[in-house]
Amino acid sequence: MKTYTQKGKNTLLIINHKTSKKVFVRSVVLLKGNINYTTLYFQDGKEKVIAHTLKFFETFLASHGFLRIHRSFMINPYFVKEYNQTQEYLTMSNGQIATISRRKKHTLKELYG
């Protein structure tokens, strides 16, 4: 995985070196991990499956404000539409639902009150 910054804070993430697939980090709404694959959900409704674990992206995206809220989910907090405290899930701006783990719910309560 390579990254580079263009004018300002428009950081690009190069996902696949063979096809040179590049995405803007700010357009990623949610990452959903499934064993050795990660699905990236974008602001425009598109999805991209990548053959890397969620942990592969975690350190880089955490520096850009992303939060790991579950073993299978990493979110961009700017795209949170609704926080349901009773059933412990987040609804994202693109309609995806991300569950919150028991150990991470205190972090979200501090963030969203």
Largest sheet: 5 strands, antiparallel
CATH topology heading? OB fold (Dihydrolipoamide Acetyltransferase, E2P)
Radius of gyration using CA atoms only? 14 Å
Major sheet: arrangement of strands: 6-5-4-8-7
Describe this structure in words.
The chain is of the alpha+beta class. It has a single domain, classed as LytTr DNA-binding domain (OB fold (Dihydrolipoamide Acetyltransferase, E2P)). The chain contains two helices and eleven strands. The chain has helices at about 55-60, 105-110, and strands spanning about 1-5, 10-15, 20-25, 30-35, 35-40, 45-50, 65-70, 75, 80-85, 90, 95-100. The chain has a five-stranded antiparallel beta sheet with strand order 6-5-4-8-7, with helices on one face. Strand 1 (about 1-5) and strand 2 form a beta hairpin. The longest helix is centred in the middle third of the chain and has 9 residues, at about 55-60. The radius of gyration is 14 Å and the shape is globular. It starts with a strand and ends with a helix. The mean pLDDT is about 85.
